[in-house]
Structure formats: C-alpha cells, structure tokens
Design goal:
By secondary structure, the chain is α/β, with parallel strands linked by helices. The chain contains 8 helices and 8 strands. Strands 6-7-5-4-1-2-3-8 form an 8-stranded mixed beta sheet, sandwiched between helices. The C terminus is likely disordered.
C-alpha cells in the first residue's frame, strides 16, 4: 500500500479507498452477472486506443486483454487490493502495462501533457459529485493537446421497467460499490473549458453512457500536485 498517496487523499477518496480494500476480495464474484454484458462491448470500445494510455480505476483489470498490442498502458486504482488482482490479468495482456496505486483526483507524479488517451469505465459514477471536477482537471493536465478520452458511465434509464430495476438495486450498488446512477458526470465534462466532448452514445439500452472527446489543442493547463514516491506494482 502506498502510504504517500493515502496521506494526501481528500476525505471522500479515502472513504472509497477503504471501501474497495474490502470489496476487492469479492468484486469479481459480485460483478459476474454484469460482466457477461460488459465483455461484449469492451473490445469494441478499446480497439480504437493507441500510444500512451492512462486507465483510471482499473479495478481488477477486466479491460486489459482488450487493449491493442501497440498500447503502452498505465493503469491506476485507489485500492492496492484491487491492483493485486489486476496484476494477474496484466501478465496475460497483449500490451505493456504498468500498475500504480494512485488517486485519480490527484494523479501524483503523473507527467503533464503526456498521455494520448485517458480511459475510465464506471469510475466517475463511484466518485462523489463534489470531487469529480478534481479528476476532470487532472485529465486536462495529463493529456496531450488533442489527447482523447473515453468515459463509460451508468445513468438512470428513462424506460420504466429498467428504472424500477435500477431503483431496486440502488441500495446494494451504493453500499457495496459506492456507485450512484444520478452522478452529474456529463455535466462536469461539459463545464470544463479545456475539454471538448465530440459525442455521447449508449453502448447498451439507455443506461451505459459513453462520453468521448479530446483535450483542446491550445490547452496547456498545468495543475500542480504534491510529489510523492509511487509504488509500481507491475512493469512488464
């Protein structure tokens, strides 16, 4: 566990870190039903990325095997226990992967204007609304000008049947994962002048929302973060 990272976390991030230190041990089991759906669209989404890629909130590494071989992937997660599981999947991935325990609202020791892509699946719906803007600012900092982002989120459906099902699962989802269907993630990206949303679309029903776009080419925003040693769990 990287104590340097943890010591700089805000209260909300620290709460999530504690939650996922526990959830990690049964995460894949709990997620099995949904993963049967996710694995159908993971390769289609991730097949377009290349170059230096930062995936924030890698979880147990379900995306890894779907990245192109040309990808140089840096994967971060707030939970060291999640990363221990992800490490096993990273060994079987077709691309180079480095895993680091880090907080996406800070991205300590991550260089500015470096990454070609920023990828995140179901992380912002876990992140409390009042710290989402911090993570969005970090996307601006670490992406190259014209660097691209792919953000996959869950939102409430407008279909009454699906909506009833979501509301039925809401207490469980929030208790175990810290996730909510009513996060204002799209709005946070729309509010940031340094990022340009090019398209939004649903990958399944009207629940799984993809937000795709890029950093404006004239953006060289640098957001200073305190530097601490970062523990690299895997460097293939």
């Amino acid at each position: 566990m990287n104590n340097g990272i943890i010591s700089t976390m805000n209260q909300e991030s620290r709460s999530l870190q504690r939650k996922y230190q526990i959830t990690a041990w049964f995460y894949d089991f709990l997620d099995y039903y949904w993963e049967r759906q996710y694995r159908l669209f993971r390769p289609k989404i991730l097949g377009v990325v290349s170059g230096n890629v930062l995936e924030a909130g890698v979880g147990t590494g379900r995306n890894f095997r779907h990245y192109p071989a040309t990808t140089n992937l840096t994967g971060i997660d707030i939970s060291s226990n999640m990363l221990r599981i992800a490490k096993k999947r990273a060994r079987k991935a077709p691309c180079e992967i480095t895993l680091i325990q880090n907080d996406s609202t800070q991205l300590i020791d991550m260089p500015p204007n470096y990454f070609d892509w920023y990828v995140s699946f179901f992380m912002f719906c876990v992140m409390p609304d009042d710290i989402q803007h911090l993570a969005v600012n970090q996307i601006v900092r670490v992406l190259k000008p014209n660097g691209r982002f792919l953000i996959l989120e869950m939102i409430y459906s407008k279909d009454e049947k699906l909506l009833r099902r979501q509301k039925r699962f809401k207490p469980f989802v929030e208790k175990v994962y810290g996730a909510r269907f009513d996060r204002q993630t799209l709005q946070r990206f729309q509010e940031n002048d340094y990022l340009q949303i090019e398209k939004t679309f649903f990958v399944k029903a009207d629940v799984y929302l993809m937000i795709e776009g890029k950093k404006n080419p004239s953006s060289f925003l640098y957001i200073k973060t305190e530097s601490h040693p970062v523990k690299v769990l895997l460097a293939k």
